[in-house]
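Hi there, hope your week has been kind to you so far. Would you mind checking whether the tokens look sensible for this chain? I owe you a coffee for this, so here goes:
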Amino acid sequence: MLSVSGVTSPGWPAVGEESHPWNSDHDEGSSHRARLRARGPYSASVPPFIGGLAVPDLDAQTALAAEDAIAELARFDGEQGRITAPFSAMLLRSESASSSEIEQLTANPKSIALAELGGKSGPNARLIVSNTRAMEAAIALSDRLDADAIIATQAALLGETNPEYTGSWRTQQVWIGGGNSNSPHGASFVPPHPNRVPALMEDLVVFANRVDLPALAQIALAHAQFETIHPFPDGNGRTGRALVHSMLRRLGITRNVTVPVSAGLLQNTGAYFDALTAYRQGDVAPIIIAFSNAFGSALFNGRTLVAELEEFRANAELVTTARRGSAGWRAIEQLVRLPVVNAVSLAAALQVTPQNAQAGIDRLVADGILRQSGESKRNRFYEADAVLAALDRFAERARRRSL
């Protein structure tokens, strides 16, 4: 028996199952053959309550790797906290893009930057921008990690595109995978019946707010439990990864920057999804290992990105002909925040007139630091190719699968 703060647990319970009738009204519009395949009751999962469970003993190597990952994470956060450049904003956007890519939502850095400015961009870029807002909401609400905060995080993610899916826990059955999009029959995983969701989420909040557990194990298990409950009609994966950052901030591990953890998970999505399956079978080690590895990859990738952004800023300040303190000079740091600008956005960021902002942009164009994007004569956008290239390299490193 294991003991933590007087709570005993023989291990980690596996997810159970229960049968529910399937309402054939869900299958209206499907073919007769599809309706036949979807007939009869289906099995939904029954996750255990984990609020008072102790983390099972881990082997020495896994436990040490988890401790080292948390220590390195805190060290990275401290390093970036001592640097005045606005790298935190870029790391946050990079994390948002990686988390979205796990859900097969991809867009290049230029499209994401244009979406932030309201420029012409694809739907995926706009969704990634919404995911950035969701992560910002999760971090802002980390001091009160409760049901309302989690619901608000998901609302920040889908409020613009699918507001009908926000504001509460789901009230319908959802499922993951399988060949039948009209019923849960044959799905690879069926989360719990919606009637179970409120109590399970209340229990998860209790677990996430405990202060007597190893940090990485607590974060990884809370995330896995969230994904198992799947409390929303949509946006569960991205909201669940935003929850990771909320917990990191609440536990005091990160105070200054958003570490691109999803970029680490993206390196081996197969291992990540397999680890979630193992968690549901009662084996917690794989999801803890997946997060330990993800933190390590994220720190390497994040440090590399920050170093390249620092190099860009230093080189730009070296070659620019803009006067120190002028709009052009000050714009260089803004390009580390967002590599695409226009006169309106830069004027707002620098608190100068659009005319002064445009003069600064023109100076950086002449210096070869900025380049006009497209041939439009109105509402012109300008991009910092060197910063966009650094972000492209970050994304490519994140996609590189480990063997």
